[in-house]
Amino acid sequence: MAIAKKTGVLDPSGSVLSATDETSWDWFNKYVERASFAEDVVTSQSSLILAGPALYSELSELGAVFGVNTSTSINQASRLTPIGFVHEFRFGESQPISRNFEIGSGRAKFSTGKSTARGSIRRAMFDADSLLKVLMRNGSRAQASHIATFFNNSSNFEYGFGLWSDVFKIPFGMASVHKTIGNDFVASEYLEQCYIGTHRVSVDARAALVMEDVAFEFDRVRPVDIRIGGPSGIPDNNT
């Protein structure tokens, strides 16, 4: 599914990049960015975080997410789980950069090393599957018997604690999907081979909620095409 190209009313040239070029910087009448309409903004309410298998390729045969056809291999029943009550989700990548010089020149040359990637997710604790359990539900070996046994033997079947367990040595994946508040698809990505590094529970007498925090490392970010429906009655111009 190709993303539809927009031409804004503030862009008489028809450019899909911006309303400004090197010969027409008309700041009294034009915005620089073409996406200058309220419904083009992506917000936290129009983004969704999902837990999945460790590798994007492990998603099952072509299917649908929440009844909406997609161009990816997804089975909504078992392979992608929306994570609710999430207050904060972050991820980032970094790579080492070396600045190199040579005798006889004042100019620098650069070399880069291998990238690393980390993320975190913060969620309220409530009477439902814990954050750890949701993250591991679709892991590479989520159907292994010792995983079910671990959670069955927990103080509450819906909760699981203890990173010492082999359950949390199994990688998982995470997807995030971003749409505009006007229901147009913007982007989605998949974090492959996530491993939990730390898990914390925060109880604060001044806070309204008890929070769970998980920090994780992962192998890579894959830009993928995961299309998920939005508010009924609002058309998606990118489908």
Topology summary:
Blueprint: E1 42-52, E2 64-65, E3 68-69, E4 81-82, E5 86-94, E6 97-100, E7 109-112, E8 116-124, H1 131-136, H2 145-152, E9 172-180, E10 185-202, E11 211-218, E12 220-223
Antiparallel strand pairs: 1-4, 1-9, 2-3, 5-8, 6-7, 8-11, 9-10, 10-11, 10-12
Name some characteristics of this structure.
2 helices, globular, 239 residues, disordered N terminus, mainly beta, 12 strands, Pnp Oxidase, Chain A, two-stranded antiparallel sheet, eight-stranded antiparallel beta sheet
Concise overview:
The protein is mainly β and 239 residues long. The chain contains 2 helices and 12 strands; from the N terminus they run E-E-E-E-E-E-E-E-H-H-E-E-E-E.
- Poorly predicted sequence stretches spanning 5 or more consecutive residues: 1-16, 61-77
Query: Would you list the SSEs in sequence order as H and E?
Result: EEEEEEEEHHEEEE
Helix percent reads: under 10%
Principal-axis shape equals globular
Largest sheet: 8 strands, antiparallel
CATH level-1 class: Mainly Beta
Percent in strands: 25-35%
- Specify the CATH architecture: Roll
Give the number of helices: 2
Terminus-to-terminus distance? 6 Å
Structural class: mainly beta
> How many independent structural domains?
1
Q: What is the number of beta strands?
A: 12
Q: Tell me the CATH topology.
A: Pnp Oxidase, Chain A
Evaluate the radius of gyration: 22 Å
What average pLDDT do the residues reach?
Answer: 79
